[in-house]
Design a protein that fits this description.
single chain, alpha/beta, 8-stranded mixed beta sheet, 5-stranded parallel beta sheet, 18 helices, binds ligand NA7, FAD-binding_Monooxygenases, Flavin_mOase-like, FAD/NAD-bd_sf, FAD, NAD(P)/FAD-dependent oxidoreductase
Length: 536
């Protein structure tokens, strides 16, 4: 080891989003020399890229920000219960300034490759500009939803008007006024975009392949009185997030959907539909996401709401999902989304009836018509969870590629380590608990920091997961997911993306047990001295 060349850094972090920023801050606290490489020109990750109109939180703002600094909590005031993207980006810039993070971040630096080098016990990282950088540890803070995908439709590059993927939204203002706009995609992003574009576009055509079960967001400004209560109540807010299944403020009702009378059930659904945020999804009867009958009850309720809100019955039917139940995919939260379809300037095209044949220089050709547009917005989603890893040429011991290793679905230890990829630590990797992501991020980062402190103090320089630990965790992830209705449905939750080669079949991509159970497992590994890891 003495003859090894000096490493440029102790740790390289890929990405300056919420996880990369906090990880940088924590590793500085250990005295490590850290470099962050960030593809964008600023901090913020998800909130840096997704500048599309209407982008905002679906988690309560005050449950989403960092919890690690009391001073930060006291000085930052969220303006709305569900803050819009520009505010969140300002917040993350404020965090970067406050903790002086920028001096260790290199912007405009996309990582192309990272190869493990046993000879110097470190990672050899190559940027797209050709420069090379070495470090003992490689920390991936690349985000589960950061590899956007365009549809695999012929002619996408031939369109002559403006065209944007929602993730690659331009930094300059985009106007829809007087324009004929197409939006393809009706996931959480599409729904937020559509309700905003419909306000000013001359004409909006929505191309929907699969409708989703959306529910009202009920956003509003935070009053001064609420602001005081929020700031005084932060310990309670974060304690609640820690106890809930997916780190949201909402916890399932202990009752089963059929343990109450039909009237009580209906009243509870009404109450949830009228309440802000994810309550109807995460705070519903305990069995609506696992029991088919219970799920059918809430599904039927929401279908009725859609029929009430959309005037044209034929359009309403198109907006009602037929092949999956409520909450089995990510529930988009909306503000007058369904009412958009009552506007004379909005039209819904059901791609199940009339699929897109090709994108043309003028617009979109479906099997039954030529549609002309000034702008096409692709709200077509992401190569989720593993996609952001697949784009980097990551090679572990013996030159094996991570992408090949995960060809049949990811294998990890707690979503943090992959056997054969020593000293690579993943934040929000596959098989971690996601949910209200910043809460999971803080836990993940703290755990990784604890491991690195353990190693640093003992002069250990190599960590790998033991194969039996990886096998046990991967089995555990599969076991805790069984019984969830969402695992029987195609979506980014189950790793399906029709626009990506080889991602047509469902895999177990996420840890879908409870966040408290996830943390209990990880805490025990640390408390017992990391016996599942090979440390040297
Ligand atoms: P999603 O939820 O993956 O939604 C993507 C949408 O785009 C969805 O409606 C897709 O239909 C549609 N899509 C994708 N490809 C095509 C093609 N080729 N033709 C027509 N329609 C297509 O991504 P979002 O960005 O909305 O949300 C991702 C997450 O970000 C979200 O869950 C939040 O947590 C934040 P499909 O359903 O596949 O038929």
């Amino acid at each position: 080891a003495d003859a090894a060349p000096a490493l440029d850094h102790d740790a390289i972090i890929i990405g300056a989003g919420m996880s990369g920023l906090y990880q940088l801050h924590r590793l500085r606290g250990l005295g490590l020399r850290v470099r962050v490489f960030e593809a964008g020109s600023g901090v913020g990750g998800t909130w840096y890229w997704n500048r599309y109109p209407g982008a905002r939180f679906d988690s309560e703002s005050y449950s989403y920000g960092y919890s690690f600094s009391q001073e930060l909590l006291e000085e930052w005031s969220w303006s709305e219960h569900f803050a819009p993207q520009p505010e969140t980006l300002r917040y993350l810039n404020h965090v970067a300034d406050k903790f002086d993070l920028r001096r260790d971040i290199r912007f405009g630096s996309r990582v192309a490759a990272a190869h493990w080098r046993e000879d110097f016990r470190g990672w050899d990282v190559a940027l797209e500009d050709g420069s090379r950088h070495t470090a003992r540890f490689l920390i991936t803070a690349v985000g589960p939803l950061s590899a956007p995908t365009l549809p695999r439709i012929e002619g996408v590059e031939t369109f002559r008007g403006e065209a944007f993927h929602t993730y690659h939204w331009p930094h300059h203002p985009v106007s829809f006024a007087g324009k004929r706009v197409a939006v393809i995609g009706t996931g959480a992003t599409g729904v937020q975009t559509i309700q905003e574009v419909a306000k000013t576009a001359a004409h909006l055509t929505v191309f929907q392949r699969t409708p989703n079960w959306c529910a009202p967001l009920h956003n509003r400004p935070i009053t001064e009185e609420e602001q005081r209560r929020i700031k005084a109540g932060y310990p309670g807010i974060f304690a609640r997030c820690r106890e809930s299944f997916a780190c949201f403020l909402h916890t399932p009702d202990p009752r089963g959907a059929f343990e109450v009378t039909p009237e009580e059930r209906e009243a509870f659904f009404e109450e949830l539909y009228a309440s802000p945020g994810f309550g109807i999804w995460q705070g519903n009867f305990r069995d609506v996401l696992t029991d088919r009958e219970a799920n059918a009850a809430i599904t039927e309720f929401v279908a009725r709401k859609i029929r009430q809100r959309v005037k044209d019955p034929a359009v309403a039917e198109k907006l009602i999902p037929k092949n999956h139940g409520f909450g089995t995919r990510r529930v988009p939260l909306e503000t007058r989304y369904y009412e958009v379809y009552n506007q004379p300037n909005v039209r819904l095209v059901d791609l199940r009836e009339t699929p897109i044949e090709r994108i043309t220089p003028q617009g979109i050709r479906t099997t039954d018509a030529e549609h002309e547009f000034d702008m096409i917005v692709y709200a077509t989603g992401f190569d989720a969870i593993t996609g952001s890893f697949d784009r980097i040429d990551i090679r572990g011991a013996g030159g094996q590629r991570l992408k090949d290793r995960w060809a049949g679905g990811p294998q990890t230890f707690m979503g943090v380590l992959v056997e054969g990829f020593p000293n690579m630590l993943m934040l929000m990797g596959p098989h971690t608990a996601l949910g209200n992501i910043p809460r999971s991020i803080e836990y993940n980062v703290d755990w990784v920091t604890g491991l690195l402190r353990h190693m640093w103090e003992r002069g250990l320089t190599r960590v790998d997961a033991r194969p039996e630990a990886v096998a046990a965790w991967t089995d555990h992830v599969k076991a805790v997911g069984s019984g969830l209705l969402s695992n029987e449905v195609d979506s980014w939750f189950t790793g399906v993306n029709t626009n990506v080669e080889g991602k047509q079949t469902r895999i177990v991509a996420r840890y879908s047990g409870s966040a408290p159970a996830y943390r209990a497992w990880c805490d025990e590994v640390a408390a017992k001295g990391y016996r599942e890891l090979e440390l040297a």
